[in-house]
Every structure is written in structure tokens, then in C-alpha cells.
Design goal:
Blueprint: E1 2-8, H1 10-13, E2 15-16, E3 21-22, H2 29-37, E4 41-47, H3 65-76, E5 81-85, H4 99-118, H5 120-126, E6 134-138, H6 155-169, E7 174-176, H7 192-207
Parallel strand pairs: 1-4, 1-5, 5-6, 6-7
Antiparallel strand pairs: 2-3
Helix pairs in contact: 2-7, 4-6
């Protein structure tokens, strides 16, 4: 059985900001993906509303992605594929992060896994067949910075999002770009249609692995 760890934010968790509750399990894209892949795969869904890629959250520190990743990775290890779906919350106006700071935070996940891989004891315990897992980034998807989410994101947030995408295009990282996915009325979270499409897009990436 192949294991896929998805470490992400509210769109991995399945948040419906409009109702304030989590959407039904069978409508969340990681679970849709699990059903598409079948019993030969196990999806490990580790999403958290508000999670950032970095550690700049001073009040609700549990949202700091760096602070919790190592324990979550090792709890679920070994995995065949690691999907990092973060960065959107880092683009919020309140964090005032540069695109390069966000990129560095995203790349940290690959670096920290590789550092563990270089440790002989860690490699034996936490890495399947002594190999690095495939690492795939889902880059921040489109959001409505003009109307519905204008208090959270602005045009500068969108410029930074595009700069992040451009950086990854010029890198050797595996990544998925989604620029036109369907959202809920809040302009941030995936609609039911958006969750279905995300599952299909990730499925295509996995098939190519």
C-alpha cells in the first residue's frame, strides 16, 4: 500500500467559511482522492484552518506549520508521497510577508525532510526502503482579493502569489498550479465543485509519478 501525506490548511481540512463548519467528509478533496485511488493507497489528511507555511503567528501558535510538521511527518512515516498545500494564509495582509519569505518557508519542508533522510537512524526508521518520499507542492490557488476577501487579501497578495508561481516554474520542485478553481462565496475556500476538481488535478499529478 502506498501512503500519501497531505499537509495543508483549511482547503485540505474542508472548511466551509460560509456556514462555519466542516463540509461533509465525502466532499473533501483528500477523501475524494482516496476514493479515486482505491485500496492500494492510503491518504493521510493533515489539514488545519489558518495554518501558515511559516511560524509568524504569535497569537494562535498552533497555526504555525513549521512548529507541528516534524511530529506529524514522523507520526505518519514512512510515506511514499508528501504533498505540501500551504502558502495561501501566508499571503494575508496581516502577515506582511514578502513572496521570498513565503517561498523560503515552503522550501523549508523539503529541506527538513532531507535533513532527516541524511541521518542514518532516521532513514531506517522514517523512510520507506531508505528512499526520500516524492514531494509535491500545491501552490496557493486563486482567491477573490477584489470583493469577497478584500479585507484579508489585496492586489499585493495576488502579485506575491504570482511571484511564488513564477519562482517554482524556474525551480526543480514538483508542483501544481491552480488559477481558476471554483470557490465559495467567501472568495477563499473551495466549493464542492472546487474540491472535486482539486482531487482530479492531484490525481493527474500522482499518475504521472
Amino acid at each position: 500500500m502506498k501512503k500519501i501525506l497531505i499537509y495543508g490548511d483549511s482547503n485540505v481540512w474542508g472548511d466551509n467559511f460560509s456556514t462555519g463548519v466542516r463540509i461533509d467528509d465525502d466532499k473533501q478533496w483528500p477523501i475524494i482522492l482516496q476514493n479515486q485511488l482505491g485500496s492500494d493507497y492510503k491518504i493521510l489528511q493533515e489539514g488545519l484552518p489558518g495554518r501558515i507555511a511559516g511560524n509568524q503567528e504569535d497569537i494562535k501558535k498552533y497555526k504555525n506549520g513549521k512548529d507541528t510538521f516534524v511530529s506529524i511527518f514522523r507520526t505518519n512515516a514512512p510515506v511514499d508521497t508528501l504533498i505540501i498545500s500551504l502558502g495561501t494564509n501566508d499571503l494575508q495582509i496581516k502577515y506582511n510577508k514578502s513572496f521570498r519569505e513565503i517561498v523560503d518557508d515552503l522550501l523549508w519542508y523539503r529541506e527538513i525532510v532531507y535533513d532527516s533522510y541524511l541521518d542514518v537512524d532516521d532513514r531506517k526508521k522514517f523512510f520507506k526502503d531508505g528512499k526520500m518520499p516524492n514531494i509535491i507542492y500545491i501552490l496557493p490557488v486563486n482567491f477573490d482579493y477584489e470583493i469577497n476577501a478584500k479585507d484579508i487579501f489585496n492586489i499585493d497578495s495576488e502579485r506575491k502569489r504570482q511571484d511564488i508561481i513564477s519562482f517554482f516554474h524556474d525551480s526543480d520542485q514538483k508542483f501544481l498550479v491552480v488559477n481558476d478553481i471554483s470557490l465559495l462565496d467567501d472568495g477563499i475556500h473551495l466549493s464542492d465543485e472546487g474540491h472535486k476538481r482539486m482531487a482530479d488535478l492531484v490525481m493527474e499529478v500522482l499518475v504521472d509519478e
